[in-house]
Write a structure and sequence with these properties.
Layout (H helix, E strand, L loop, with lengths): L8 H28 L19 H7 L5 H5 L5 E3 L11 E3 L14 H5 L13 E3 L3 E4 L13 E3 L9 E2 L10 E2 L5 E3 L4 H4 L7 E5 L5 E5 L8 H5 L7 E4 L3 E3 L2
Antiparallel strand pairs: 1-2, 3-12, 4-11, 5-8, 6-7, 9-10
C-alpha cells in the first residue's frame, strides 16, 4: 500500500491565517512609510497647497493629515492625497482645474481648523507665501487673444465646481454651471479673479487682448478653473515664497 502525504485541516487553516496576517502587516507598513515619506522627500509631482501653508518641507513635517481643512472648506477645494499619489498619502492639496480656492473665504476656515500650524495666518514681514503662481501657457488658444467673446456655461453642464458670485450671493458659493455668461470679449479669468489687480487683459490691437499675471497673484487657481478652453490657457505652478522688497 502506498503512503499518501496529507495535510491536517487545522495546519492548513493556521497557514492561511498566518499568510493573511503577514499580508495585512505588510500593507500597513507600506502605507505608513508612504505617509511619512514627504517629511524628508520632496513632493513629486508638486501640489497646490491650501492657503497659509508653510514652506513645503515644513508643511509636510507639520501636517498630521487629520483632514480638518477638508471638512471646513466651503467650496470643497481641498482633497487628501491617496495611494495613487505614491508619496504623501493623506496630505491636503488642491486641484485648481477641478475646484479652485476662491480666496474670498472669510478668515480662511482651513487655517483656523489646522491644529498644528501647518496652515497659518502668520506671515513674515519680509516674506509673503503664495499658494502658487499663475502662468499663461497657451495664449494662442485664448479667446480674448483672438478678439472673441464667450456665451454659455464656462465649464459645461456636467461641471460641479463652485464659485462665489458677489453679485448673486457674497456668502453662498453656487455651481458654476448655474451661472451663464454672455461676453463680447472673454474676460472670465479677470472677471472672476478674487484678488484685485492680480490679472488683467493687455490690449494687442483694437479687438484683441492678452492675459497678463501680476505680482498680486496668490495662485488661488480661479483663473485656471474658470477658463472655458480645454486645456486651460492659464495653469498654476508649484507654490513658492516671494521676497517683499
Amino acid at each position: 500500500m502506498l503512503n499518501q502525504k496529507s495535510t491536517h485541516p487545522r495546519s492548513e487553516i493556521n497557514r492561511r491565517r498566518f499568510l493573511q496576517t503577514l499580508m495585512l502587516v505588510a500593507s500597513v507598513v507600506v502605507t505608513s512609510i508612504g505617509s511619512f515619506l514627504p517629511a524628508w522627500m520632496k513632493w513629486n509631482p508638486a501640489r497646490l497647497r491650501p492657503p497659509g501653508a508653510l514652506d513645503e518641507e515644513l508643511f509636510l513635517a507639520a501636517c498630521i493629515k487629520c483632514g480638518q481643512c477638508v471638512q471646513v472648506c466651503p467650496v470643497n477645494a481641498i482633497h487628501l492625497a491617496d495611494l495613487s499619489d505614491s508619496a504623501g498619502i493623506g496630505v491636503p492639496y488642491i486641484d485648481a482645474r477641478e475646484q479652485a480656492c476662491d480666496f474670498s473665504c472669510d478668515i480662511l476656515q482651513c487655517v483656523l481648523a489646522c491644529p498644528t500650524g501647518a496652515l497659518t495666518h502668520a506671515i513674515s514681514q519680509k516674506e509673503e507665501v503664495r499658494m502658487g503662481v499663475a502662468r499663461v501657457v497657451s495664449v494662442e488658444n485664448c479667446l480674448a487673444y483672438h478678439g472673441l467673446g464667450f456665451k454659455g456655461l464656462a465649464r459645461g453642464r456636467d461641471y460641479n465646481g463652485l464659485l462665489r458670485y458677489s453679485a448673486i450671493d457674497r456668502w453662498q458659493p453656487i455651481l458654476v454651471r448655474e451661472h451663464p455668461y454672455e461676453l463680447e470679449l472673454c474676460d472670465l479669468c479677470v472677471r472672476q479673479c478674487p484678488i484685485e489687480k492680480a490679472i488683467y487683459l493687455k490690449p494687442i490691437d483694437e479687438k484683441r487682448k492678452t492675459p497678463v499675471i501680476t505680482e498680486q497673484c496668490v495662485g488661488c487657481g480661479v483663473c485656471e478653473m474658470i477658463c472655458p478652453i480645454e486645456p486651460a490657457v492659464i495653469v498654476i505652478d508649484e507654490r513658492q515664497s516671494r521676497k517683499i522688497a
